[in-house]
Amino acid sequence: MFSEAVVVRLSDPFVKSARKIYTYLNRRNENDVYVDEEGNEHEIPKGSQFAATVTLECNTELTVNFKDDEITTLLDQHGVNRCYGCKP
What we know:
Number of helices: 2
Shape: elongated
Radius of gyration: 19 Å
Helix content: 25-40%
Structural class: alpha+beta
């Protein structure tokens, strides 16, 4: 007795929502490892990007942030944006 294969296709809105949830949870909970020029390892929030701030005194400060999107807005609204105060 042979059974027929069943193909299930998820709807596009469901797939988009699942991706957003996955991105949100990654940014909220997961880390990437950054190795600086001296070989030291630092944990930074997964999906974050580096941003350098240069002051008038020629001091440079390296920080990380998430791109400005809907997911970052949600992290901010729930008070779980881990990039605030994170300096590698």
